């Protein structure tokens, strides 16, 4: 480090210098600099000695501003505008965080997680605090919304931001998303079910203020139309297991409108829906085929194993972290990381030929 | 806060004061103090004005040390010495974090998560960095180990620490744990199975370097003995779904040693084990009863619903955060929060009378 190695001898002034502090503390100038800039590599006792020397000499860095501005926090923020139990209830987030952590950990970065509840202004307040208190170097966002106001806010706050997912229209944000055709996995799932003879396919969708919800529903309808089919039912639902159970009860209640296959917006809902169907006496896949979305670990734990549309959430998380580091290094042009493999169908045991009691 | 309200008028010196900065920036002295101490409530433009004024006057707080020492980070650290995918693979952590976040969010605190991999020194390095760089106000630990060295390290680093779980012997750490008899839930599970006529009960346990693993195994053996029984088998396993599948294959392979009921160390393992048994042709609970541990959401999603030993992980997380705030407020005597309800059996559908093919 090309730090200044001592005071300029000729000029005497009342003002203590960094070298005076270093001398009194018995450490190098660069060690004092590290303490001031909160950089690693200084033991707590040495740190204390430096702080004591600085206090004794009434020395402080020529501009505190430099220290306050310059030091990286080595933390990336993630604010979830969801209920406190979101990590437990929606493992999608946990998998994404796994991917983010896989890149942060080797760089000695941590992920500062704020789960702020569903009140809309709470997320904005959290971003403002993170920016004002300089607690993170940047933030990773998820769940792109229609008319999303977060990107403009973060631009005003000068907080670097990376979105996991597809921005709505020309939202001004670096984003990472799966490569290939938008939601090709949905099309593959529809083809898979149609090839198995299904003509009555329902879709249990997520809340329609999410960008991906709207995209996926469109692809679902277009893919059915290409096979000369129309959706048997589309149920718009919350992303919860309880909502999935209610949707399945509703879908299976009327024999004349009963689907032989159901696509769910995520794996948790699909597993809950599968159990609800079996509890109502429908065997899976004999009487009802089930398809999930995300390829979460739960899909492989259950019996029958869940057919699902796999997206590489771990790689999406890794890419988001990589893009963030590129932004922080001042090379936004390289912040667009290599594309993540497109979502695609993973056929397992929960789908089978149409032709059971509902077929 | 008793911040200095202005310069002493009598004495003139070359050194600018906080009041000069406040005057130049057109803000109050306390606003300057807030900027310097990274406290909330200052808008970014105001903050910028203060920093510019400080730079122009070449002013810095009388002791940078005060700023560096005094400011809270509003972050609590959690270091997991586990693989990057731990949150996805072991939802136990996700639920605990949900509880921690439920207390942190209203206090405007975030959780700084470091998942550092399983190399033993990585966790220590992470704590050292967190302490040296003052990135968190304190840390919450989990997975108490036998001969745990983390508490002594954190004491040396002066990093306040709260353990979720039972410390080994007299480890010097504030801990939060469930009330009541240690692992009473295991006893209830054994009684439940014995009452259902089971005489051949196996246990798939976690790694034996964990304190809770050792405690629970002892309680399991003692509870069986009280019913005049001995464990059919104890399989020591990793906390993974794959390990659970291997354990079940092993347990069901030899008809003469086959258990009619299996307790698992966690719910993920229990669900994976249940699916493995069914894939081998054993109906649950007709041929094999299954009990999990933790009461994670997955247990209610699957069919049959999982009988499990419920511990209130959300409340444990909340209590850990509450204890941390008490420590940070300098009232360690009140850091021992109200006890969390004891673990207890939640009978659902995966346990039934002994007497199937293996009974």
TrEMBL record, chains A, B:
GO terms for molecular function: DNA-binding transcription factor activity; transcription cis-regulatory region binding. Residues 335-345 have a biased composition (Pro residues). Residues 330-359 are annotated as: Disordered. Pfam families: LacI, Peripla_BP_3. InterPro entries: HTH_LacI, LacI/GalR-like_sensor, Lambda_DNA-bd_dom_sf, Peripla_BP_I. CDD domains: HTH_LacI (cd01392), PBP1_LacI_sugar_binding-like (cd06267). Residues 16-70 form the HTH lacI-type domain. This is LacI family DNA-binding transcriptional regulator. Keywords: DNA-binding, Transcription, Transcription regulation. The lineage of its organism: Bacteria, Bacillati, Actinomycetota, Actinomycetes, Kitasatosporales. The keyword Acetylation does not apply. Gene3D superfamilies: 3.40.50.2300, lambda repressor-like DNA-binding domains (1.10.260.40).
């Amino acid at each position: 480090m090309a730090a200044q190695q001592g005071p300029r001898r000729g000029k005497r002034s009342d003002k203590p210098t960094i070298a005076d502090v270093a001398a009194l503390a018995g450490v190098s100038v660069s060690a004092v600099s590290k303490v001031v800039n909160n950089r690693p590599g200084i033991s707590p006792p040495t740190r204390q000695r430096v702080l004591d020397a600085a206090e004794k000499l009434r020395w402080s860095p020529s501009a505190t501003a430099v220290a306050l501005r310059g030091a990286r926090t080595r933390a990336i923020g993630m604010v979830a505008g969801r209920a406190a139990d979101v990590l437990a209830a929606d493992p999608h987030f946990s998998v994404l965080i796994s991917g983010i952590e896989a890149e942060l950990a080797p760089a000695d970065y941590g992920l500062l997680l704020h789960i702020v509840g569903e009140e809309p202004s709470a997320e904005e307040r959290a971003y403002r605090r993170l920016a004002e208190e300089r607690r993170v170097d940047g933030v990773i966002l998820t769940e792109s919304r229609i008319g999303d106001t977060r990107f403009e806010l973060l631009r005003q706050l000068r907080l670097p931001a990376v979105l996991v997912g597809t921005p709505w229209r020309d939202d001004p944000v670096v984003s990472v998303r799966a490569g290939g055709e938008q939601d090709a996995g949905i099309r593959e799932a529809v083809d898979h079910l149609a090839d198995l003879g299904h003509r009555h396919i329902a879709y249990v969708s997520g809340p329609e203020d999410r960008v991906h919800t709207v995209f996926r529903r469109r692809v679902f309808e277009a893919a059915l139309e290409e096979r000369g089919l129309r959706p048997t039912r589309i149920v718009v639902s919350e992303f919860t297991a309880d909502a999935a159970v209610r949707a399945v009860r509703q879908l299976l209640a009327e024999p004349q409108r009963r689907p032989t296959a159901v696509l769910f917006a995520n794996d948790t809902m699909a597993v809950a829906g599968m159990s609800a169907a079996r509890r109502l006496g429908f065997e899976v896949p004999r009487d009802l085929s089930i398809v999930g979305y995300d390829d979460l670990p739960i899909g492989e734990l259950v019996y029958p194993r869940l057919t699902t549309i796999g997206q590489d959430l771990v790689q999406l998380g890794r890419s988001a972290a990589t893009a963030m580091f590129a932004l922080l290094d001042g090379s936004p042009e390289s912040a667009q990381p290599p594309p993540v493999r497109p979502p695609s169908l993973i056929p397992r045991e929960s789908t089978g030929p149409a032709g059971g009691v509902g077929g």
